[in-house]
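Researcher: Next sequence.
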Amino acid sequence: MKPAKVSLLHRMLHGLKQRVDCNTANHFTAINRFVNILLISAVISFPSFAMAHGITFQSGDKYTSFEELKNNEDPSDYRIATKQAGSQMLIMAIHGGGIEPGTSEIANELSQSYSMYLFEGLKPSGNTDLHITSIRFDEPIALDMAASHQYIMSLHGYYEEDRDIKVGGTDRVKINRLVQELKQSGFPAEMLKNDDKYAGTHPDNIANKSISGLSIQLEMSTGFRKSLFDQFTLKDRASTQNETFYRFTKLLSDFLQENYEAGGGFSSGITKHLLIWLKEVFCG
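Model: Next structure:
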């Protein structure tokens, strides 16, 4: 082959190599761009998907089960308190004590008329380590009490200095009624949609493991809970409950009595045993 032709062929091959390298690079750049778009879309859309399907996450939880907590925490750092009142309604505060301050005291006041379950954090600090999210809360006594009551009111707190009460749960008719009564009495209440992260409608939520599966879940802001006490420390809350505290707890107690204990729910013993039987047949 003549030198001129060799040189021309060399230039052609070199140009082809450059084009192949460039096209390959562009190809992978396009793939990377496409993958990045997919990842960004997934990050943006997943919260909506999760909420629509009742999926919630407590990213800060140290433990995912009570057994794990029990195996890693000193027994003096927490306390379980219960009361059986023979009522259809069970009051639960699974994040009591120093975990979500103020919820224990409300539950204790309501326990004058209703059964109660408390899980309380007693550490001088760091009680958030004892927080197990509601869909993973599997302490055996709590599960037994939930399964032996018709209904559950679950008390929770969330961090927000404004005063607010977010009302969720599965008993939608009664929830709407409670919100209206709270508002009429001057309390800052709102009814949550089913897909709200605080709605408490997930079937694995311990509040929904009663005989009927009907629940009311109260999420109370820090600002509102503080307004119920003159002193908000762990040791002082029980002795500094103020007039707002007693107005609030009386409203709740009267509401539960009217709507769940005095013929407002499944009061028939026959109905109760039928529901238990159906639960055993279909749920094992």
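Model: The CA atoms of residues 228 and 245 lie 4 Å apart. The beta strands are 78-83, 89-97, 115-121, 151-158, 165-168, 189-191, 214-221.
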